[in-house]
Design goal:
Elements lengths: L7 E8 L8 E5 L10 H11 L3 E6 L5 H14 L2 E6 L6 H7 L11 E3 L5 E5 L5 H8 L5 E5 L4 E3 L2 E3 L13 H20 L1 E2 L22 E8 L5 E9 L4 E10 L4 E9 L17 E5 L2 E8 L2 E7 L4 E6 L8 E3 L2 E3 L2 E3 L4 E6 L8 E7 L7 E3 L5 E2 L3 E8 L2 H6 E4 L6 E7 L10 E7 L9 E8 L2 E11 L2 E5 L4 E4 L3 E4 L4 E5 L4 E9 L5 E9 L3 E3 L2 E6 L3 E10 L6 E11 L3 E10 L5 E5 L8 E5 L3 E7 L2 E9 L4 E2 L6 E5 L2 E4 L2 E4 L9 E3 L2 E9 L2 E8 L7
Parallel strand pairs: 2-3, 2-7, 3-4, 4-5, 6-7, 25-31, 35-42
Antiparallel strand pairs: 1-10, 1-11, 8-9, 11-14, 12-13, 14-15, 15-18, 16-17, 17-23, 18-22, 19-20, 19-23, 21-22, 24-26, 26-29, 27-30, 28-29, 30-31, 32-36, 33-34, 36-40, 37-39, 37-41, 38-40, 41-42, 43-44, 44-45, 45-46, 46-47, 46-48, 49-50, 50-53, 51-52, 52-53
Helix pairs in contact: 1-2
């Protein structure tokens, strides 16, 4: 489509960066209905995509112990936790008394109340992008809801991220907004509209008013049309007293763009480590979203969220030395020596957030320093980090910049050429605290003569990870699963089974481990296994479970690793006799309330109570498919009888309609007035005899 489409909303912001101001973007974290064993994984994911703030509702029934583990994780990750007291819950005075040392003013992560106004946007809404970009104009808070799957007494409530960590396409909206607000947060906190929104048939020309010196501007565009849009956008820029035309803007239906306008590169809040650049060096505009700018070793690097290919125009005080890299590949760019402007193409981004990165060499650096590799760091251990320099003199004057309270020491200075080592390298030894969170990242930098010369972002991993491949999950609907914690392993008697223990060595060197396995009432072979695993590699250890003499029902087990690292993995084994069901109670969804499980060697059925309640799951084991809806089915009190491929309930109304579910066929019969029998088996193919 062309620029003749109307209803494209344009708002130009002119701002003054104010110290201490903040625009809050947070995710509402449903801690009551989200499995606790997944809290750290989910918070690490949020922080990794650029969300470092969450909010929780404090309502009736809240106790300090409810949120203490969550506060602890936030403190370790450096995230903020905003408490939102509800009318039926404890007041601010009580919260401050109970959580005294956890508040921001005492160095903790907790803050009471979000800046107003608060805009709540559902991530699974089809209008999530448009609603969120309107919220950017409020200066208050943007709170994302429906981000994660949740479960409660009524069953599963779907979010944009499943319990297994799988992301729905809608998470691209959160990822883009996370990157945008992370970069523009200070701007958004003080942004004021320069002029009214203007709608014309051909193009938009926001008129403006004078803004303060050294201002930074952003153009917020929202495609309110019912189709894709392409065209030019006109924006009046007060300091220059001229109208600027941003040409070649492309927007998809329902999408939005926040375009940079006249960004001074010497402003440290907008361009990291750019103090060496001139005050006249600036980004005139870009036709896609700018999310990061930095200057190192003579290279100006810019990152964008680019749903479509675009361009960025720079005003520079000298001709760039080149080369120009776009999307990791050498590319050409236009340079106008008369206007001293460079026009750089921005390739369409990749991944959920449409991220793309370009780099332009402005001038050859007098000196440079680099991190040699980006290997993950092991939590609770000392890690070697190697750095490289352009000269021995720079190496001598350099220093490693690490986060506060992180122990590190100089391990080896390789500055003597006669030793046979390179005089241009330095090894550092960094110790990662045992309290660090698995999956988090650490930012390190190299500095010499007061200038940052290199940086690296390294992931933090526990020394070793263990996963039992045959552990079962609690099913919600046909496609959602929650892994049981501790792992639950079904074993048929008397046949027994083999299980695979997947061991991942996260260290950057080969390590040897000893796996010891034990299980009450169940024989395991081998009970002890020695295994060596290469750096950042995984191996499987196969263990046979013998159930000939084991009693039906639950058995507690333990898989312990020693050697290169120590890790205990408790688990449960349920022994299922031939042609007989076994029933037991176990907290499968980690909500503090045990579920009641009835299963045989063919089917598994899960209920909220021993006498029925809510029927949560009905699974054919060979297909690993659940035929119940997300919320399960409320059946009330009922006797439960499981035989072969049939489940009989004491009721005369079918709780689940018969039908075909993939390769499974569910049939329903009423053999008596007070009985309903559900039969679940593979559908017979018409070609089969």
């Amino acid at each position: 489509m062309t620029s003749t489409l109307r209803l494209v909303i344009s708002v130009l912001f002119a701002v003054r960066i104010a110290a201490g101001a903040s625009f809050v973007q947070a995710v509402e974290f449903p801690y009551r209905s989200f499995p606790p064993q997944l809290w750290d994984r989910e918070l690490v994911w949020l922080k990794d995509i650029g969300i470092d703030k969450i909010t929780v509702s404090i309502s009736r029934g809240w106790t300090e112990s409810n949120t203490a583990p969550l506060i602890k994780i936030c403190r370790r990750l450096g995230m903020k936790l905003y408490l939102s007291p509800q009318p039926d819950g404890p007041g601010e005075a009580q919260l401050r008394r109970l959580l005294a040392t956890q508040f921001e003013e005492h160095g903790g992560p907790v803050v009471i109340g979000l800046p107003r106004p608060v805009s709540r946007v559902s991530l699974i809404s089809p209008d999530a992008m448009k609603l969120s970009r309107r919220a950017l104009q409020s200066r208050g808070s943007l709170v994302w809801i429906d981000v994660e799957d949740t479960r409660d007494a009524s069953g599963l409530h779907r979010g944009a991220v499943s319990f297994a960590g799988d992301e729905q396409p809608s998470t691209s909206v959160l990822r883009r907004n996370a990157l945008l607000v992370q970069y523009w947060a200070a701007v958004l906190s003080e942004a004021t509209p320069v002029g009214p929104q203007e709608h014309t048939k051909n193009k938009l020309r926001p008129t403006g008013q004078l803004m303060m010196a050294n201002g930074v501007s952003g153009l917020n565009l929202i495609n309110e049309t019912d189709a894709d849009w392409s065209g030019d956008v006109a924006a009046y820029y007060p300091p220059a007293r001229q109208t600027m035309t941003i040409s070649g803007v492309h927007m998809k239906k329902g999408d939005a763009l926040f375009l940079p306008v006249n960004i001074p590169l010497a402003d440290q809040s907008m361009c990291r480590n750019c103090q060496a650049l001139s005050k006249n060096d600036r980004i005139i505009f870009a036709t896609t979203e700018l999310t990061a700018v930095e200057y190192e070793n003579g290279i100006l690097a810019m990152e964008f969220s680019a749903p479509s290919a675009g361009e960025v125009v720079l005003q520079l005080t000298s001709e760039p030395s080149g080369p120009f890299l776009a999307g990791g590949k050498p590319s050409k760019f236009d340079w106008d020596s008369g206007t001293m402007r460079a026009r750089l193409p921005v390739p369409a981004g990749q991944g959920a957030a449409s991220r793309t990165r370009i780099g332009l060499a402005l001038q050859p650096p007098d000196a440079s320093a680099f991190f040699v590799d980006g290997k993950p760091l092991v939590i609770g251990q000392k890690n070697r980090i190697t750095t490289s320099y352009s000269s021995p003199e720079i190496a001598q004057r350099s220093r490693l910049i690490v986060p506060q309270n992180l122990p590190f020491q100089l391990k080896t200075r390789r500055l003597d050429a006669t030793s046979g080592d390179s005089p241009l390298r330095i090894d550092y030894e960094v110790e990662v605290p045992a309290t660090a969170v698995h999956g988090d990242h650490l930012q390190l930098a190299l500095e010499a003569d007061g200038i940052q010369m290199g940086h690296v972002r390294l992931q933090l991993l526990r020394p070793v990870s263990v996963h039992i491949r045959q552990a079962v999950a609690l099913h919600y609907g046909p496609d959602r699963e929650l892994a049981t914690s501790p792992p639950l392993i079904p074993v048929d008697a008397p046949a027994g089974r083999s299980i695979d223990i997947q061991i991942r060595n996260n260290a950057p060197e080969i390590r040897s481990f000893t796996l010891q396995s034990s299980c009450e009432g169940v024989e395991l072979s081998p009970s002890k296994t020695d295994v060596s695993i290469g750096p950042s590699m995984e191996r499987e250890v196969s263990i046979r479970l013998f159930a000939t003499d084991a009693q039906p029902g639950l058995h507690k087990c333990m898989f312990s690793l020693d050697g290169g690292a120590h890790l205990d993995t408790p688990s449960h084994v349920v022994v299922i006799p031939r042609d007989k069901p076994v029933d037991y109670s176990l907290d499968l969804d980690s909500d503090g309330q045990p579920e009641h499980i009835v299963e045989n060697q063919r089917l598994r059925a899960v209920f909220s109570q021993p006498d029925g309640g809510r029927w949560l799951e009905f699974v054919a084991k060979d297909a690993n498919r659940n035929v119940l809806p997300d919320s399960g089915v409320q059946i009330g009190k009922s006797s439960i009888d499981l035989r072969g491929t049939e489940l009989a309930l004491q009721q005369n109304v079918a709780a689940v309609a018969p039908g075909k579910f993939g390769e499974l066929l569910l049939s329903v019969e009423h053999p008596a007035a007070n009985s309903t029998v559900y039969s679940l088996k593979r559908a017979v193919n018409s070609n089969e005899r």
